Amino acid sequence: MTGASPRLLPTPLAKAPALWLALAFFASHALALSLIRLSGPLAPAWPPIGVAFAALIILPPSHRALIFVGVAVLDTLSNTLQGFMTPTALAYLGVSLFELWVADRLLRRFARRTLTFARVADVIVFVGIITTASAASAVPAALVAKVSNGAEPLNAGAIWWIGDMLGYILVTPLAVLLAFRPAARDRGARLLRVAEAGLILLTLVFGGLWAFQGRGIVGPLDAHPYMLTVPILWATLRFDQLGTLWSVLVTGIVGVGLLMAGLPLLSLGGQSNADALILLQVFLGIVAVSSFVLATALRAQQDATVANARMIAALTESEQRLRQSQKMEAIGQLAGGVAHDFNNVLAAILMQLGEIRLVRDLPRMAGELLSDVEQAAQRAARLTRQLLVFSRQQAMQSHVLDLNHLVRNHARLLRRVVPSTHELSVQLNPAPLIVAADAGMIEQVLLNLVLNARDAQREGGKILVITAPRTLLPGTSGDLPPGEYAVITVSDNGIGIPPENIPRLFEPFFTTKPPGQGTGLGLATAYGIVQQHGGTIGVDSRPGHGTTMEIWLPTTQAPVAEDADSIDGPLDADSGEHASPLTILVVEDEPTVRRLMARVLERDGFRVRTGVSGRDALDHWGDYAGVVDLVLTDVVMPGGVSGTQLGRELRNRHPNLPIVYTSGYDPDYDPSDVSMVPGENFVPKPATADQLLAVIRRQLVGPGRA
Questions:
Q1: Alpha-carbon Rg of the chain, whole angstroms?
Q2: Which residue has the higher pLDDT, 523 or 195?
Q3: Percent of the chain with pLDDT over 70
Q4: Cα(377)–Cα(464) distance, integer angstroms
């Protein structure tokens, strides 16, 4: 048998199946022998064979040999204790083991999955297996009966076949369902269900007493066993497959009880107890199979309904996530475009301010006003950087690092922003958590979450930061693929977040803080950063009980990079002076920015050539070749040739030509592309004149980089 076994519920049979099956086999064997001892051949079924076959289904394949040995030992023990240990009993034991072997072979051949009776196909396969196995064993059983007591072979074989079939049908599904019982369906109060089950039981008992004896009801209408199908169907509809099996068992107990009491089953038409027993067996078998098929079909339909409901819920959730993703992407594109244009304006303002500061004898009042304007421009620049990070258009510089090390180092800054009324506790995972990440960006995310936790506890409280590994298994719903992740958890016991606000937490400009106390970009920026790293942020919050946020980042098996000086050093650090006037080609489509860049470079002693686009620079490169010592180009330009394309083309022609890139954002930025390094050959807009000059000087004193 292949396929995963169903989930076992905490029933006694599910907890220790081998022990309970052994006890059930011995008890049912002893009970059947007792019936035979008391009233002759009045065992309507042979339940031990049903228990043994259930063991083959429930227990692992490695237990098969143990099952056969257990059947032999327990059968012998039961026969010995009740005085049936004879050569004939040993012969019948051999036939039973042969029958069980045939059933086992058929089970492994035709059952492609565990028979849990969750589908009608399971019932069809089951009936086919037990019919074949019991029929195959009926022949040697008839020969044993002929040799031992001279019984008529055809009659003896039929009794064996019918009795074993009924034992299979009533006992095997019952044991399997108790071991692989599906989750209970809520169909009303427990007390009402018990009362309903009791009413069905009474109906079967008293109805069976009337029906099997054919007592008169009204006029010529006499009671008949077919009337018992009504309470059996009632049990089927209300109590699923277990209700069907128990109701048929009760019906059989009533019929056998009447025979043992010496009362004939007149409604079945049998002239003797032996004939009546066979007719009772046939009746029970037909009712059991038909009602069990119906119960299984109903269960399959209910399971399909539940599965469809879950699928619809999952599709609805996926649709909501897709809409949210599309909305965030659209907002991100809008934010990136606005930030690009705004950065050009800010670049012009900051450079103009730098030029004005060079004016001699500037009045003190004018200097103060210039400082105020410059601070406002820098604040606007920080806002646009947040927009770029949110829209995932900010260049990310990933390095393999230990997340524990990053959080430990950043904790010093976090403690400075948390007032004394708050307690900040950091718990790091004992083992390293290796991720590929931009340390500065992750620190910004962690800072945003800690600040939110601080603001959620106006009167003070506890903020807990924890790092831990997590594993997502296949089939787990959510935004992340299966795999290993490192998680930073930031929790507080503050005011919490109302449920209606949680879906909007990461929307830009959405904030619940009072006016002037928040831009609504903190969590949007954090979400954009974590998504850019291939992770996500989870939120769990209850109003009045605090909030827990989790930063999920995929782990990596790559080795941790050796410590080195940060590439994001101060942009205004000069790395050397040029000894003689050099020529720089400035390629910029924004006229104001182009003029200011040229003015700054010329004032610093450079010769300047200008181009209005990448296409323009390539078309006139014949005039510049051999003259230009460095190219300063914007990344996003019209004309079909971007700054990166221009850089690649020029480096193909002149491999050692230094190229410096500048941009407010790059919509085609690839995180795996390390050719643009901020502070080395890339100047993010807006930048001051000193920052621009520092990067250009670095490129001129060393080998060019693209």
A1: 42
A2: 195
A3: 82
A4: 36
- Amino acid (1-letter code) at residue 511: T
Task: Find, among 119, 270, 250, the residue nearest to 180 by Cα.
Answer: 119
H/E element, 484: strand 483-492
437 lies in the same domain as 342: no
pTM for this predicted structure: 0.54
Distance CA 350, CA 359 (A): 15
Q: Which residues contact 32 (CB under 8 A, 6 or more apart)?
A: 43, 45, 46, 47, 48
Q: Which pLDDT value is given to residue 143? A: 92
- The DSSP-derived string for 168-190 is HHHHHHHHHHHHSPPPPP--S-H
Residue 700 to residue 147: CA distance in whole angstroms: 110
Residue pair 110/129 in contact by the 8 Å Cβ criterion: yes
- Locate all alpha helices (DSSP H) within 654-705, ordered by sequence: 689-701
Tokens of 632: 């300063």
Contact 684, 386 (CB under 8 A): no
Q: Identify whether the C-beta of residue 51 lies closer than 8 Å to the C-beta of residue 21.
A: yes
Q: Would you say 497 and 547 are in contact if contact means Cβ atoms under 8 Å apart?
A: yes
Identity of residue 16: A
Q: What is the pLDDT of residues 505-530, one digit of tens each?
A: 777 666 666 554 555 667 877 887 88
- The answer to whether residues 614 and 663 touch, using CB atoms and an 8 Å cutoff, is no
> Residue 631's domain spans which residues?
583-701
Residue closest to 504 by CA, chosen among 327, 672, 678, 377: 327
In a domain, 325, yes or no: no
Most distant CA pair in the chain: distance in Å?
134
Q: Are strands 546-554 and 682-684 parallel, antiparallel or unpaired?
A: unpaired
The DSSP symbol for 150 reads -
Helix (H, G, I), strand (E, B) or coil at 152: coil
**Bond prior to 173 in cis (omega within 30° of 0):** no
CATH code, 526:
3.30.565.10
- Mean pLDDT (whole number) for 439-464: 85
Instruction: Categorize the per-residue pLDDT at 356 as very low, low, confident or very high, splitting at 50, 70 and 90.
Output: confident
In a domain, 363, yes or no: yes
Q: Are residues 444 and 520 located together in one domain of the fold?
A: yes
CATH label of the domain that carries residue 649: 3.40.50.2300
List CB contacts of 534: < 8 A, sequence separation 6 or more. 553, 554
Q: Can you read off the two tokens belonging to residue 196?
A: 């309903």
How many angstroms separate the CA atoms of 510 and 530, rounded?
Answer: 18
Gap between the Cα atoms of 398 and 395, Å rounded: 10
In-domain check, residue 561: no
Please indicate, yes or no, whether residues 354 and 457 belong to a single structural domain of this protein. Answer: no
Q: What is the pLDDT of residues 570-620, one digit of tens each?
A: 333 333 344 457 899 999 988 888 888 888 898 888 999 999 999 999 988
Domain assignment of residue 322, yes or no: no
* 138, 58: one domain: yes
Q: How many domains does the chain have?
A: 4
- 3 state SS of 424: strand
CA 84 to chain centroid, in Å, comes to 58
Phi, psi dihedrals of residue 423, rounded to the nearest 5°: -110, 120
pLDDT of res. 324 = 66
Residue 307 to residue 72: CA distance in whole angstroms: 43
Give the rounded distance of the alpha carbon of 83 from its chain centre.
59
Q: 550 with 409, same domain?
A: yes
Residue type, 181: R
